[in-house]
Amino acid sequence: MRGGGGNPSGNYKNPCLTMHQPWASLLVHGIKRIEGRSWPSPIRGRLWIHAASKVPDEATIKAMEDFYREIYAVNGITDLKFPEHYPISRLLGCIEVVGCVRGEELPRWEMVPEGVRLEGQTDFCWLCEQPQKLLIPFEMRGYQRVYNLEKKIYEAAVRGLVSVEGPLPVKFPLPNPQDPFSLKPGSISVQFPKSKASDIEKSSSLSAAIAGARAAATQFTKKDENLSMVIPNGTPDTVRTDQSTSKSLKEDAMLDTNINERSSNDGTLVSNDKEQSFLPKCEASSSRNKTPAGVERGGPHKIFAASLRGLKPS
């Protein structure tokens, strides 16, 4: 189940999640090992990662890089190599979601490194392994929550993946190796009922880095609840294809915050994977998001998009 993508649960064939930068690239590069959400993971297995269109500012990038420098230093790793670029509106690669636990459980889980336990700052922690990145990220549009990647995009992307070796790869042990869903909210409390949160001594720099990471995430707090489509008492991340929900939701309207995210909404945010399309042109970006030298910005993506449509690139 852990290798090669497995069979994700529910109605997802090639599930994808749109994330803001720099969190998206940090996850695909194996630096980020916990994806924090206010809702539990609806899948196990391969999850594709797409970067949203918002250009990250330098202060946000610095805050998150400082955060990971500090939590890796807890485990003696001081030479972190961060991504040179944080591209936007791109499919970046994928990871394997092997489980999901509650935020209050992760600090008590002594079987994982201390630095990993410090990553858990949200209601639910998605446990991520086996990062892979695309040699050439694909330009495409994103949607809310988890949605199915279009088949022709998946077939092209899966051929361009390369494995990534993170600074400190972690294997999250399953309570029941025969059950890929055994690592779920509440399972750590059941397995280790007497365990307590370990007292990780936090230096002033570590405490400041955690506070900075939380502050960086607050800029993505949901501001307009009216933009969401809610199904009362629905299952999170349901994908509907009827005409009433056929319009794609704008990716930056209400993306869930990666750190310090809280939500009191028990409804379902609806998205539609059938209307995914490549954006016609690249969007503006900061100096950290420029295309590497030697790669024409938009060139491979434009050719790829044209081949999908049966058109000649202009």
UniProtKB/TrEMBL annotation:
Q: Which Pfam families match?
A: ASCH (PF04266)
Origin: domain of life = Eukaryota
Q: Where is this region: Disordered?
A: 259-314
* CDD domains attached to this UniProt entry: ASCH_ASC-1_like
Domain called ASCH: residue spans: 17-117
Stretches with biased composition (Polar residues):
259-271
Q: Which SUPFAM superfamilies does this entry report, sorted A to Z? A: PUA domain-like
Q: What is this protein called?
A: ASCH domain-containing protein
- What is the protein's species of origin? Quercus rubra (Northern red oak)
